[in-house]
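User: Some background: our group keeps a shared notebook of sequences we're curious about, and every so often someone picks one and asks for a predicted structure to add to the entry. Today it's my turn. The entry only has the sequence so far, pasted here. Could you supply the structure so I can complete it?
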Amino acid sequence: MRFFPLLFLALPALAWDPATQDDSLALARHFTKPTEPLKPFADRKFEPNSGETITLMGGTSVFQMQDTGKIEAAIYETYPDKKLRIRNIGWPADTVYRQQRPMFFYTKTGDTREGSVPDQREKLEPGIFILQFGKMESLDGESRLPEFESALGRLVDELAKFSPRIVLIAPEPFPKSGPAAALAAERNATLAKYTDTIRNLAKSKELIFAMSLSGNVVADSDPGDALLAAIHEKNDLFTQYYRPTNWAFLFGDRQHVPSSRDHRDANRRWFIEELNKLPGLVSAADEAIWKEVQK
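Assistant: Of course. Here's the predicted structure to add to the notebook entry:
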């Protein structure tokens, strides 16, 4: 048997190590600093301001709120004249410990290679922050409750630098049917203790706590198909902007390759040009929702 030597190619090292990207408080990178300090909720009562942006944050449960659009519809229909902007930045696998994002996602420093630019997307305007965490974290058991409380408190404190208008929503219980039905009772018993921790943290920081959004924070609603369609259109457009495909070629570590550029003009970043059209389309979709909800 003949053995052939392995050849290793020396690749240019990045000047910035992606392993140093801090994703423990990544959600805070998504927002602009307000020009003036925002006022907290009066008497811890949920009452949006006219034109306010409401941002939904959390893991899979929050991400999946977009599937039906009913939670958003309930918010819009409870406050039909306030022209609210709802943005869902839920990301599957997000926890209070880590919100992992692609390389250079909303970071000031981008790839240092020639022709690369840092993330230029518009950041979100701070307003009301609605957070739902705790379900996946509870699977770690009661022993990590102090760590969970500390991490959630740290995340809330960081977001409070942008807005004190924070709502903590209790995690949804584990289902009593399906393949893991036999584990539901034990898991929900642990989850209840995580929920108590969230409730106590909200009280200590003078934040709003609710067991759920619909029914506790906003009124139940029965939205029509036209409103849901408008909400889905807005969410689809925002998702394209917030979670664009081919991130590495857009603002990641593949910006320097020919595929990231116009084949007729290597200096032209056609992908960025396409992305920059989306904020206007999202704003138009917001207006379509407002018109529908005011009918």
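Suggested note for the entry: The first strand starts at residue 53 and ends at 58. Strands lie at 53-58, 85-88, 128-132, 166-169, 208-210.
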